[in-house]
Amino acid sequence: MNHQIMSFIIPIAVLGLLIGSFLNVVIYRTPIMSKRRKLETETDEIKAIFAKDNQSSEYDLSKPFNLNMPHSACPRCGHVITAWENIPVISWLILRGKCSGCHLPISKRYPFVELLTCALFAVAALISHSWFMLVSVCSLMCLLVSTIGIIYDNENVPKSLKYLLISILIITVMSIYI
Fold first, then answer.
1. 19 pLDDT exceeds 80?
2. Model pTM above 0.90
């Protein structure tokens, strides 16, 4: 493969790794955020029952929970993930797939999603004829990976994500013909 093509594909693939890491956050947090929104509209009696059944801080409505906050942490021991522990794939390999706090296994899904997104971005870079098509295809791939991850983990996809997926799909198809 010629040097010019590789110098274009490699940065796009690295971007795919970084975005894949973020997609893991989306996959994990989107269903929780959806449940929290539903819970916010419920009565105090239902909230009390839910809080009793779900001791996790993820459902503590007094604390923010979104794609940005709180910082990523081990779901078992609460160890906050440091910057060096959050390097896509490399940190998982260095830590041998275990939390540095409790030493329990970290799901293989995390490096899988990162590597899958990396590969999809590299393929998109190879087949795209324009920047618009590249961004469209990569956006579609991100939505597909996150949707499949959410379905796999929770068997429940929020409607807003379905509508966004359809919109990106339409834009991607249109970009092929532009």
1. yes
2. no
